[in-house]
Write a structure and sequence with these properties.
2 copies of one chain form a homodimer. By secondary structure, chain A is an alpha/beta fold. Helices cover 34% and strands 26% of the residues of chain A. Chain A has 11 helices and 14 strands. A 7-stranded parallel β-sheet of chain A has the order 3-2-1-4-5-6-14, sandwiched between helices. A 4-stranded mixed β-sheet of chain A has the order 8-9-10-11. At the A-B interface, helix 1, helix 3, helix 4, strand 13 and helix 10 of A face helix 1, helix 3, helix 4, strand 13 and helix 10 of B. Strand 13 of chain A pairs antiparallel with strand 13 of chain B.
Chain lengths: 326, 326
């Protein structure tokens, strides 16, 4: 069996995760990592060729799918449209407000080059989006709720680190248990931002810093914390390293609805993840399989998880799927 | 907007549920119910034309999708291949061992007639199958577990009713809480049939019947009860009517796995349903939308939930899906 040849673009937590996940999928192989750093400075978790970003064009015909592991803010909007001119792609673009524009740009370039790009792949957007669309279709009258956590938000952790006097920080997003219970009871509540999640911050302050001021600045930070009940714990650098070095995450999608005869239904999808980036990576690899197969059938342009039939994701043949999984 | 015109074939709990669910989907209308009983004897929950099964051919061009609401044992294997010669179909065929042969037969007739049939639609097979394929693809190394209940098993209730001296009965399948906990802990246990589910039976005995013998016959019944820890409660007819007249069901699909770096992941999908047939019906209606759309794109033959991209199920346009659900 000819393996699906992957390229990894960008080698942070996500790129490392993709390399690891590929080893768990016997139909995959990683051909090379592409980086904008000095290739010699990149230490891969498994030995593999590390190339300059610009060398990618030399791999046309040698890589079936490029998995884009850069960030949504600046990397992906530039890289996706460049790379789809040469390769099929998978990415985890997650800036929600910019998804329509991103889709249009990627779709246009893909249609022009004859390549296929799967965008916004991962668990949210991704598997959670799938839960939202399947649940909504299965039960047209109802309410869908998404909760995140307990898990580390990198964006919120970074925001705390920018506060003067802060050395390091870790922020956990936590769903409010009583809100979950209200949703599960079928009450279909209207929940405010504050009612759905709390924010727990573990902060290492510089010596002599004004802790009261730091706490106040965090709690009042607009967009990030002002709309939430926020708890700030000051801890030592050692404690942060010891107890908060992982990147766990998770969450739930719940739909509560009823039939026209007033019978109640509850649908719930939940994730508990020891490592957010390693789980996301594992999904990216499965979608690389789908992209490879759909492109082989002649599909090009941009697709999201909504456009991809589940059969394309599975290692099993369609006959095996019906026999073993249906 | 032209509505999708549905026909309902067979009018039991499922057919009634489809009629109800169609009222919750503004793009659907039910044109007629087809029955092998005397049409005059069928009381529909909402007024609609009731026709003889044989009159179906007069509706060619007037019905877009027939939803087959008969049983898997004898109705569907005969009806599906007959009806797909004239109409697109959706069915809930769930005799697991016969799925491959059923697929082949339906696919052959559909390819010949140019119609499309979605088979084995519902929650299991159906939504649970989707959880199994998505979870397995997202996490190639791991174990998937399916639990059913707490809910009424019609087949097991019927089996009890066939025991001599039994007037009526209701059987609940119940997942074993300790097994669920072991799975959720990431232990990846090998679970026997007995370890996964218990069976609770509520039995109305005829006056003067030998209760000890009835209980023994139930508990030792091969296939149905012998492999389970079974509890038998004798109750009055009034109590059965009062407390056990609903048809609730539900269940869970859980996948527990890990990354190549040994980080653990848990994926869980669960359903709690006040009415099993009304929920199944609601899914059948959503898949009728998918069948209508895919057939309009030229697709014919047989498909399962695995072959249908989620976008086809949603009432929303693809742009709205990306904006609101992704």
């Amino acid at each position: 069996m000819q393996k699906i040849r992957l390229g990894i673009v960008g080698y942070g937590n996500l790129g490392r995760g993709v390399q690891l996940a590929a080893t768990q999928n016997p139909d995959m192989e990683v051909v090379a990592v592409f980086t904008r750093r000095d290739p010699a400075s990149v230490n891969t978790v498994i030995p593999v060729k590390v190339e300059k970003y610009e060398s990618m064009r030399d791999y046309v015909g040698k890589v079936d799918v490029m998995i884009l592991c850069g960030g949504s803010a600046t990397d992906l909007p530039v890289q996706s449209v460049e790379i789809i001119r040469m390769f099929n792609t998978v990415d985890s673009f997650d800036t929600h407000a910019k998804i329509p524009a991103y889709y249009e740009a990627l779709n246009k370039e893909g249609k022009a080059s004859g390549k296929l790009g799967a965008m916004s792949i991962g668990w949210d957007p991704g598997l959670f989006s799938l839960a939202r669309i399947y649940f909504g279709a299965a039960l047209n009258e109802g309410s869908t709720y998404t909760f995140w956590g307990k898990g580390v938000s990198q964006g919120h952790s970074d925001a705390i680190r920018r506060v003067e006097g802060v050395l390091d920080a870790r922020q956990y997003t936590v769903p409010v248990e009583s809100a979950l219970q209200r949703v599960r009871s079928g009450e279909n509540p209207q929940l405010s931002t504050r009612e759905k999640h709390t924010r727990e911050c573990y902060v290492v302050a510089k010596e002599g810093a004004d802790l009261k001021r730091i706490e106040k600045e965090i709690k009042e930070m607009p967009n990030y914390f002002a709309d939430y009940d926020t708890t700030v714990h000051f801890i030592s650098e050692e404690e942060l390293k010891k107890n908060h070095s992982g990147i766990p995450h998770g969450g739930l999608v719940i739909r509560s609805g009823k039939s026209a005869a007033d019978n109640k239904f509850l649908m719930e999808f939940s994730l508990k993840l020891d490592s957010n980036p390693e789980f996301t990576s594992s999904i990216l690899v499965a979608y690389a399989r789908a992209v490879y197969r759909m492109h082989a059938e002649g599909k090009c342009g941009a697709v999201t998880a909504f456009d991809i039939a589940p059969k394309y994701l599975s290692l099993l043949s369609e006959e095996e799927q019906r026999k073993q999984l249906l």
